[in-house]
Design brief:
Blueprint (H helix, E strand, L loop, with lengths): L7 H11 L11 H14 L4 H9 L10 H6 L4 H9 L8 H10 L3 H12 L2 H5 L3 H18 L20
C-alpha cells in the first residue's frame, strides 16, 4: 500500500522544525517568512499543493532540508516540482531561474507571494539602507522577468541615467 502524502499541517510542522534556528536578514525568526508566504499563496487562491510548496520553498536552498529528503518525502510530485522550481541553484543566472519558475505549473504564485513578503516596506524598513536598496532593485528585476506587476523601482531608487532600472 502506498504511503499517504503528508498533510498540510505536517508539511507546516516539518518546515517550522527545519527552519527553527534560522533568522531572516532583520534577525526575525525565519518561520515568520514561511508562514507569510504560505498565507499569501492561500489568499491568492492557491491550492493545497501550492501552500505546501510555499511552506517548503526555501528548505532545500537554505539547507534546512536536503534534496534527498525532498525526493523521498511523501509529497505529490507537483509539490516537489514547485519547490525545486523556486530553489535557486549555485551559479544560475536570473533568466534561467525565472524561466524555470514560469515553466513549472503553480510555481509562479509561490514566487509572487515570496516576493511580496520580501518586498514588504515594513520588513525592508529595518534593514540597512544599502541592503534595502539592493534588495528592492533585485525584487523589482525578478518581478519584471516573471511578468508580475510592481517591477518598477520607486522613484527615489531609480538611477537617473537609467530610469527603467535595467
Amino acid at each position: 500500500m502506498p504511503t499517504p502524502y503528508l498533510t498540510l499541517a505536517e508539511v507546516e510542522s516539518t518546515a517550522r522544525e527545519a527552519h527553527r534556528t534560522q533568522t531572516d536578514k532583520a534577525g526575525r525568526p525565519y518561520v515568520e517568512h514561511l508562514a507569510a508566504v504560505a498565507e499569501g499563496v492561500r489568499i491568492r487562491g492557491g491550492s493545497d499543493e501550492q501552500i505546501a510548496a510555499a511552506w517548503l520553498h526555501d528548505a532545500v536552498e537554505d539547507g534546512a532540508l536536503s534534496r534527498q529528503w525532498l525526493d523521498e518525502a511523501p509529497l505529490p510530485q507537483q509539490v516537489k516540482e514547485m519547490v525545486l522550481a523556486v530553489t535557486k541553484r549555485d551559479g544560475e543566472d536570473l533568466s534561467a531561474y525565472t524561466g524555470r519558475i514560469l515553466a513549472t505549473p503553480g510555481a509562479l504564485l509561490i514566487k509572487e507571494s515570496d516576493l511580496a513578503h520580501n518586498a514588504d516596506p515594513d520588513r525592508l524598513a529595518v534593514l540597512e539602507p544599502a541592503t534595502r536598496t539592493r534588495l528592492t532593485a533585485k525584487y523589482a528585476q525578478v518581478r519584471g522577468l516573471l511578468g508580475l506587476p510592481g517591477a518598477e523601482l520607486p522613484a527615489d531608487q531609480q538611477d537617473p541615467a537609467n530610469p527603467a532600472g535595467g
